[in-house]
Amino acid sequence: MRKAESRLRNRFFIPACWLLALFLACVVTLSLSFWQTGTAEAFTASPWRSLGQITWRTVVYALLGTLLEWLLNRPSQAKALSPLALGGGLLLCWLPYLYWIFPGTVSNDSVTQVLEIIGVEKDRRPLDSVPYEFPKFCPVCGAPVVRDEDGAALRCTGAECPAQLLRYLTHFASRGAMDIDGLGPAVMQQLIDSGLVRTAADLYSLTPKQLEPLERMGKKSAQNAVDAIARSRDNDLWRLINALGIRQVGEEAAKTLAQRFGTMDALAAAPEEELTAVDDVGPITARYLCQWMKSPQSRDLLARLKAVGVNMTCKEKTVDSRFAGMTFVLTGTLEKFTRDAAAEMIEKRGGKAAGSVSKKTTYVVAGENAGSKLQKAEALGIPVLTEDEFLALLD
Q1: For residue 290, what are the contacts with CB-CB under 8 A and spacing of at least 6?
Q2: Which of 82, 129, 159, 362 shows a CA-CA span of 20 to 30 A to 34?
Q3: Residue pair 95/116 in contact by the 8 Å Cβ criterion
Q4: CA-CA distance, 327 to 272, in Å (whole number)?
Q5: What is the pLDDT of residue 146?
Q6: pLDDT tens-digit profile of 237-264?
Q7: How far apart are CA 92 and CA 290, in angstroms?
Q8: Which has more confidence, 94 or 335?
Q9: What is the C-alpha to C-alpha distance for residues 377 and 386, in angstroms, rounded to an integer?
């Protein structure tokens, strides 16, 4: 009898707790809404009524989202439901979080559009207000700033900007760039703080005695780091191009540019039209390349790197062009060569080594335990080669 009463009590008690929590969430949300706008006019103003932005379903979903967010400890990207006053404008903060809780109830447009201006009340602006002008030059280094065509971010174009120095130097020394072992973010930060490094060219003037006092840097590790820096002087040109951190220019594009132009001087002098015609380089990448090469800070950096002996020419010469226009994908465990070695053999013969299978893929080289890439290649009817068959193509 007691068990039956306990089950009956739990059957009604748990839903009651949820309803109470939902009620409290409603009170808190509405209180915050009134506090943000300062008046109940937020839900009755003419812009809301005429555009029909808030409905009972929107309010219910938002309140449930707030409750679940609190219970699950999963914060959303935009929590505000009420309109916010900003320079005389009323902004509606959509709730992209609802798309996760209630699939299909929020459209993709409203999820990606966090803020939507639904009206402007110019008479509420101060009389002495003036339009805000975005800066045209970086406040740190003075280099011109550019704005993305499809975004709102302003980016500094300076190659030696102190505000970007840590992330730039970390990328410069990374494995896919100059491949300098022993210079991670922690060491780079100490080098910057101590004033030993202000540009990437300063790395090549470091001595073991300068590195030994740094934290986690003993005598042996300091010598190893200096040796790694010295070895990077002889890297191929594509590594330097990738290390410069030019927007849209990654490892593959850097290799293509190095093979196409041969020297850094030729690349720097190339017009935008010529760059656009290069494989893996579109009009946007070509424009970023030209902007970077024309910057005074960029020219100064290249001159400094050249002065300390960094290689500025392409060493990897093309063997032949038998794979010209072909794209290979390597998958599975390869026993007779590594993926990097296979990719190098493909590129030296004019081909391209890609990381994913698509309709443009020419061949897939499959080793042991090949997974989804092999299955996709078979589904698309793309020829699959064994290691021996791939080696036969090289002969």
Answers
A1: 271, 272, 275
A2: 129
A3: no
A4: 26
A5: 83
A6: 999 999 999 988 988 889 889 988 999 9
A7: 40
A8: 335
A9: 13
With tokens 């406040």, the residue in question is: 139
Measured CA distances, 86 to 42, 116, 120, 127 (Å): 13, 12, 9, 15
SS3 217: coil
Cβ atoms of residues 377 and 344 within 8 Å? no
In single-letter form, the type of residue at position 59 comes to: V
Q: What is the pLDDT of residue 114?
A: 43
Report the chain's mean pLDDT, rounded to a whole number: 77
Which token pair is 61? 């979903």
pLDDT of 190: 93
154-156 vs 145-147, strand pairing mode:
antiparallel
3-state SS, residue 91: strand
- Tokens 């493909």 -> residue: 346
Distances in whole angstroms, Cα of residue 283 to Cα of each of 53, 238, 278, 346, 354: 40, 20, 10, 26, 21
CA dist 271 → 1, 53, 159, 267, 344 (Å): 89, 50, 20, 9, 28
Query: How is residue 263 annotated by DSSP?
Result: B
Percent of the chain with pLDDT over 70: 70
pTM over 0.85: no
